Amino acid sequence: AMAKAHALIKKYNVDLTAKDNHRDFVSFFVGKPALRHFREDYALSNLLQDFYFVYGIWVPAYVIDKGKMGRVLEISGTAQNIQIACYVNDFIKRFIDFQWETYTKDRRLNRYQKTDFAVGIIEGFRSKLESQPPKRTKKNRALIKLEDPHLKEYVSYKYPRTASMKLGVLKNDKTVLNDGIGIGKKMIISKGIEAKGKDKMALIDKPKRSAQSA
After folding, report:
1. Side-chain half-sphere exposure of 101, counting CA atoms within 13 A
2. Do 85 and 30 form a contact (C-beta atoms < 8 A)?
3. Angle between helices 79-103 and 39-51 (to 10 degrees)
4. How far apart are CA 10 and CA 16, in angstroms?
5. Is the pLDDT of residue 208 over 50?
6. Alpha carbons 104 and 102: distance in angstroms, whole number
7. Under a CB-based contact definition with an 8 Å cutoff, are residues 131 and 1 in contact?
8. How far apart are CA 180 and CA 89, in angstroms?
9. Does pLDDT of 138 surpass 50?
10. Is there a contact between 120 and 180 (Cβ–Cβ < 8 Å)?
């Protein structure tokens, strides 16, 4: 189940932090540099940071086809957590595009409504993750929110100056937003990623194939 997969991700990071083992951190661009990013991009960035043990910051980056400086999301963390976060990011974006194509098949909606739909899907998936009950053991009480002190040191050194961004409250299409939330609550990250070596484990859910699956 997906709940078990995410519990394994959390346990892996709790154990890693508790043992205080040496670990190397890397930074990686997620997506492409752009002059403008939509609200769903920021919502997805927050989801990755809250549930997949990476730190993200929007950094200046050159947008080649526009000939101007824009921004791109850069995430930092262990190589394994970066791999998982990148996969989840790409999977959710593809899921949103597929669901939007299906949703708009017999109706005409604009790009702003796609943002409402996409934000809804991400919010729905977030609520699904938040609803997963933590194990009631003393060791695992801290699984929901974990801060890695070594990652914080790495981030502080790499980004000595950071500024927070505030997004204005915009009008949205409540119907489209709520439809997206309903779809997001049913979303399953459907392909497996496995860690190699002694910590080998399924990190993302692998749903059982039905008799009709290809």
Report:
1. 6
2. yes
3. 140
4. 10
5. no
6. 6
7. no
8. 17
9. no
10. yes
**What is the end-to-end Cα distance of the chain in Å, rounded?**
20
| Average pLDDT value over all residues in the chain | 81
What are the tens digits of pLDDT across the range 1-48? 566 777 777 777 777 776 666 678 999 999 999 999 999 999 999 999
The token pair that represents 90 in the structure block: 């790409």
Name the burial class of residue 105, with classes exposed (0-12), middle (13-18) and buried (19+) by CB atoms within 10 angstroms of its CB.
exposed
Burial 131-146, CB ≥16 within 10 A → b, else e: ebeeeeeeeeeebeee
Q: Which of 20, 37, 27 is nearest to 148 (CA)?
A: 20
Rounded distance between C-alpha atoms, residue 141 and residue 54, angstroms = 20
- Name the 3-class secondary structure at 30: strand
d(CA 70, CA 32): 10
Q: How far apart are CA 45 and CA 40, in angstroms?
A: 8
> Residue 203: is its pLDDT beyond 60?
no
Strands across the sheet with 68-77, in order? 26-34, 68-77, 55-63
**How far is Cα 44 from Cα 55, in angstroms, rounded to an integer?**
13
| 35: number of Cβ within 10 Å | 11
Pair 85, 27: CB distance under 8 Å: no
Does residue 201 register a pLDDT over 50? no
